[in-house]
Amino acid sequence: MVNHRYLGSSGLKVSEITYGNWVTHASQVGNDAAIKTVHRALDLGITSFDTADAYANTAAESVLGEALRGQRRESLEIFTKVYWPTGPKGPNDTGLSRKHIFESINGSLQRLGTDYVELYQAHRYDYETPLEETMQAFADVVRQGKALYIGVSEWTAEQLRAGAALAKELKFQLVSNQPQYSALWRVIEGKVVPTSQELGISQIVWSPMAQGVLTGKYLPGQPVPAGSRATDEAGGARFIQDFLRDEVLTAVQKLKPIAEQAGITVPQLAIAWVLHNPNVSAALVGASRPEQLDDTVKASGIVLDDDTKAAIDEALAPVAVTDVEETYSVSPKTRVV
After folding, report:
1. Which is catalytic among the residues 55, 83, 120, 149?
2. Which of 17, 147, 245, 248 is the most buried (most CB within 10 A)?
3. What's the CA gap between 297 and 1, in Å, rounded?
4. Could you tell me which InterPro entries the record lists for this protein (predicted)?
């Protein structure tokens, strides 16, 4: 079964393997398969589920809501997000304005079939809306009982500090950040993680397996496997391209003997590596088939010894991205419509 960790400095516990439905639901797989996969996640002990209004232009939330229907609500932790364009994508259908936040939370709750979510997240930083307006809206969402906690995604260290200060002033908790993080993408380690630790904010990391590259299934000099994320023109393919260079794939192949020595699979090794970071509360995993989860959830509770972790770092050091400046280029300077 899956272990649980506290989210930031709050009293909320989340499953350290959290199910995310970006790319897959209402996009890469059909609804029946998606629902079966969610049910398998529940059977395996996953209690936390992450989605966003922008995934499949709101359809992914509806699929997750249907999949969770009939479950004991109090036994779940449901996360969703706001920022990216949704609906007809008009001038106010995006960003973190008070208008968009309130319209988005109401829509998300309806699609998810719930009165509240445990965690409501700013999907990016909005440079066009005063931070004070955004944080006041989030405070009101919490006070209205529509969200229990507030988090963000891909905010810089400075943005986290400013947001946390306003949250404290408005008497609610900013508990989490959701960045990309893996043994190949380590840009948060320089500034975001130390700042988060100081502020009582933890990470819910996406792409802990680097879009599947850290499973070892992509081979240097070989065509990508049929049906893999690299072939998904609906969205998955464009996110994985930077990891498909031969030098990256060659380095990843060095993980296989390391995993074998540790008695685990390469995907388990990749997830255990991110969970080794004490500032990480959860690793987001997705699946297009229920059986894929059977392997990845076994990463929960795995403790990598120092020699194993050093071997991973040595194998990937030539290709791992560590530049903290990458954290400053994620949120668009202007809203996307």
Report:
1. 55
2. 17
3. 8
4. K_chnl_volt-dep_bsu_KCNAB-rel, NAD(P)_OxRdtase_dom_sf, NADP_OxRdtase_dom
Q: What is the pLDDT of residues 73-131, one digit of tens each?
A: 999 999 999 999 998 989 999 999 999 999 999 999 999 999 999 999 999 999 999 99
Q: Please give the structure tokens belonging to residue 62.
A: 């509806």
| Domain spans in the chain, listed from the N-terminal domain onward | 4-328
Superfamily of domain 4-328: NADP-dependent oxidoreductase domain (3.20.20.100)
Instruction: State how far the Cα of 314 lies from the Cα of 183, in Å rounded to an integer.
Output: 11
Separation in Å, CA 85 to CA 26, 53, 92, 329: 17, 9, 9, 19
**Global pTM?**
0.94
Angle at 29 between CA 61 and CA 287, to 5 degrees: 80
328 has catalytic annotation: no
Which helix (H) or strand (E) segment holds residue 246: the answer is: helix 246-253
